[in-house]
Write a structure and sequence with these properties.
heterodimer; A: about 240 residues; mainly beta; Methylamine Dehydrogenase, Chain H; 4-stranded antiparallel β-sheet; about 5% helix; B: about 400 residues; Porin; 16-stranded antiparallel beta barrel; 4 helices
Chain lengths: ~240, ~400
């Protein structure tokens, strides 16, 4: 018992010195109609509209009131990440390790690319975004371990970075203000990365249950909660 | 060697290899995804005996788990799971199956193509009792509470389960029919009565879905609650001269009875800011078909009204410190094996766990103390502790 006591005291002394990141408070939230949402990105062509993917394998277009305005005919498996640019919408499926590329106008499937990964089936690619500084697509595995994979514009794998110890998991990634932004579900934190070396610049806590998606739009940060099926609006972290 | 030295050596061994790289492996053809994972856990157990006992066979190192798990999914229609514990498979040959830790843990297929309801067939956990449904590896304890260890009611069986969730998974409903012999069903045959067991459960959570977990390891910023109700019924009237298969009635002879058996339970749980707690209560009403059934303890029908009640409850409070990567927990439990015999057994347990790598690599310490015991279930120890390491290849 004495040994156990010494271990507990030692751990307490060591860990209590750690500093908590600053906490962000949301302006508010809306309920959304998308079931089991897992990621979000602003629609680059349609103001006040977003693309949202769901665990059920669907791609939706949703307005700022949370109402579904369009839905792709295609049914995927466990869609976990979404990114949109001026040419297409990119959706990553965690279970199948695939990127599905959709046409913007018709939301029809245009291309499928496969990225085999033998980690846990629920710990595969959970997020996708684009690093404009390095001109690379980014895919990130959820956890155990967390890998950041760089792809060129043609979706060829060109690099891999091990983000050791960055968080317990990474549930989403996005690009804003020339930085990569990561979201951790289990830690409930937003992490800002240097786009050149992927080193952490700063992190913030967000009091949201099961945050699964992040995007920036209209001078605000939007966080999507899967369990709550809500879209929260935050001030831009400074 | 003194107990203190033995514990010190055990702890030192546990810290060797804490950086052991571990991960599950997934194989996929793009539609069919199969994942292989597993886990090992081992502990040292020390018991403090009553003066009337001299059997120290439980002062031991024990390999508790050596498991392989295969989980898969085929498109959006099928899911399956096969989980085996090699430690308990070895003891299966003796005929006895530890219901808390059987050799075969899961072997089922789930069909999701009906849309309005999912169907699961095969062998697996019964949707009865929140505490039983919580994965062992997600708790800081080395042993479940007495009432949910599988000696009062079975935890697994072969059968068919219908499952449905609504209101964004906040309401979960399960209904199923099973052989009714519990883990012993794996031998293949039903008992001579041919009776089946019917099990149902409904749980409701707010403000979001609430998984079957004890510990608030996400440090939930909004209070979360869950309430569950479950019931089960079996009628197994054996023909004259027939008996149940060996070991099927459980340690207390209550798990399967010759007659009708109702069981119903209520559970509630909360989580908030690292704190979590749960309460669970069960009662069994047993109506043996024979007036001379041993469950009547020799009482006359006029004294028993033809039935026996048994049951118990368990309360647990936990705190997870993300900074300390530690869980501290305390549990109080009561068990009444028969309302015909005065008294209840009472136990107090405390647990402390340190997470080297989350729940996948965790050192767990559990202390037990017997506060009271029933005359029909005497126990030879007064206190015990277990300390060990669980490592999951996940």
């Amino acid at each position: 018992m004495r040994l156990l006591f010494i271990i507990v005291i030692g751990l307490s002394t060591y860990t209590l010195s750690a500093q908590k990141p600053p906490k962000l408070k949301p302006f508010g939230y809306i309920h959304i109609d998308v079931p089991e949402p897992s990621d979000i990105i602003a629609n680059p062509f349609k103001p006040n509209h977003f693309f949202v993917v769901s665990d059920d394998g669907f791609l939706f277009e949703m307005n700022r009131d949370g109402k579904i305005t369009r839905k792709a005919d295609f049914t995927g498996i466990d869609c976990e990440g979404v990114y949109a640019n001026d040419t297409a919408i990119f959706v990553v499926e965690e279970y199948t390790r695939k990127i599905r590329v959709f046409d913007y106008a018709s939301l029809s499937l245009q291309q499928t690319a496969i990225f085999p990964y033998s980690g846990g089936r629920n710990k595969g690619y959970e997020s996708i975004t684009y690093n404009e500084v390095r001109q690379r697509f980014l895919m990130i595995t959820e956890k155990d371990p967390i890998y950041l994979v760089e792809l060129d514009k043609d979706l060829n794998r060109v690099n891999e970075v091990y983000l050791e110890g960055i968080a317990r998991d990474i549930s989403a990634a996005t690009w804003y203000d020339n930085h990569v932004w990561l979201l951790s579900d289990e830690d409930m934190e937003v992490i800002k990365l240097n786009p050149n070396n992927y080193q952490e610049i700063m992190r913030w806590r967000i009091p949201i249950i099961n945050p699964e998606g992040i995007c920036f739009y209209d001078n605000r940060m939007f966080i999507l909660s899967d369990d709550m099926e809500r879209l929260y609006e935050f001030p831009i972290p400074q | 060697m003194s107990a203190y030295k033995r514990i010190s050596i055990t702890i030192a061994l546990f810290f060797i290899g804490v950086n052991f790289a571990h991960a599950q492996v997934t194989i996929s053809d793009g539609r069919h995804v199969m994942e292989i994972s597993g886990g090992i856990s081992t502990y040292y157990n020390q018991r403090f005996l009553k003066p009337t006992s001299d059997n120290r066979n439980k002062d031991r190192f024990r390999l508790r788990d050596a498991q392989i798990q295969i989980e898969g999914r085929i498109g959006n229609l099928y899911e399956y799971e096969l989980q085996v514990d090699f430690v308990d498979l070895a003891s299966f040959a003796t005929g006895e199956i530890d219901p808390e830790n059987p050799g075969l843990m899961d072997a089922y297929i789930r069909y999701k193509g009906l849309k309005f309801v999912d169907v699961q067939v095969g062998y697996g956990k019964l949707y009865y009792s929140r505490s039983s449904l919580t994965p062992f590896t997600r708790t800081p304890y080395w042993q479940r509470a007495q009432i949910v260890r599988g000696n009062m009611f079975s935890r697994r069986d072969v059968g068919i389960t219908l499952m449905k969730n609504v209101w964004r998974q906040r309401i979960n409903m399960y209904a199923g029919v099973y052989t009714g012999l519990g883990e012993i069903t794996l031998r293949g045959d039903n008992d001579a009565s041919g009776g089946l067991e019917y099990v149902g459960r409904v749980d409701v959570a707010y403000p979001t879905r609430f998984r079957y977990r004890d510990i608030d390891d996400r440090v939930t910023p909004i209070p979360m609650f869950s309430v569950g109700f479950n019931g089960r019924y079996a009628e197994k009237n054996l023909p004259d001269g027939r008996s149940f298969p060996a070991f099927s009635t459980g340690e207390f002879g209550l798990k399967v009875i010759n007659g009708e058996r109702y069981a119903y339970g209520l559970d509630a749980a909360f989580m908030y800011m690292g704190f979590s707690g749960s309460f669970e209560i069960h009662q069994m009403r047993m109506i043996p078909q024979n007036a001379n059934d041993p469950l009547f303890q020799g009482f006359l029908p006029e004294q028993t009204n033809g039935y026996i009640l048994a049951g118990g409850n368990v309360s647990q409070l936990n705190y997870f410190s993300k900074k300390l990567k530690s869980i501290i927990s305390v549990r109080y439990e009561e068990l009444d094996l028969s309302d015909l015999i005065p008294g209840k057994s009472q136990r107090l347990s405390a647990a402390l766990a340190y997470q080297i790598r989350g729940f996948d690599s965790m050192i767990k310490f559990q202390y037990f103390q017997i506060l009271a015991e029933e005359t029909i279930d005497p126990i030879r120890w007064t206190e015990q502790f277990r300390i060990g390491w669980q490592l999951n290849f996940k």
